[in-house]
Amino acid sequence: MKFHHALVASLSAMALGGCVTTVAPQTDANTDFYLARMLAGESAVSGGELDKALAEAAQHPLGSKKNPVRASRPQGQRAYLSRLRCADLSRPEFTRAGNVGMGPFGNIVDAYVVTCADSEPAERTIHMDMYHAGYVENEAVEGYGITGGKPE
């Protein structure tokens, strides 16, 4: 949890940079390590710790806050959402609603509002974790289909 508090403090300091005259640099090596991983698009946890977190997350529906869709950076999030299909096979529209805090893999989770005009599900919030470099999710969130090809 020490990392999470330091991360939130670091991100808050960056966000408020225009309001603050000086910002003390973060010197904690552990925080620097995790920030570097985040900036590289890598998960805060890896190896056996990630395997354990994946097993626990699998107990919850894909796309929920407790089991966010894993992706590689914002481009991977958009690529996944572009591959989803509504019940009528149309592409849903999606909008990033913001982040919802830390997820089960130790990373910030984003929420996307996904809408199927004249189809089902009419609207759903899908949670995504973009800190899984190189990972491509091929399973669809419940209620949707997914294409296997490249995003359109």
Q: End-to-end distance, in Å?
A: 40 Å
With strands numbered from the N-terminus, the spatial order across the biggest sheet is: 1-5-4-3
Q: H/E element string?
A: HHHEHEEEEE
How many domain units? 2
Shape: elongated
Extract low-pLDDT stretches: 1-26
Question: What fraction of residues sit in β-strands?
Answer: 15-25%
Decide which structural class fits the backbone.
alpha+beta
- What is the radius of gyration? 17 Å
Major sheet characteristics: 4 strands, mixed
Approximate helicity band: 25-40%
Report the strand count: 6
Number of helices: 4
Overall average pLDDT: 84
Give descriptors for this structure:
four-stranded mixed β-sheet, single chain, 2 domains, signal, alpha+beta, 4 helices, Lipoprotein, two-stranded antiparallel sheet, 31% helix, 152 residues
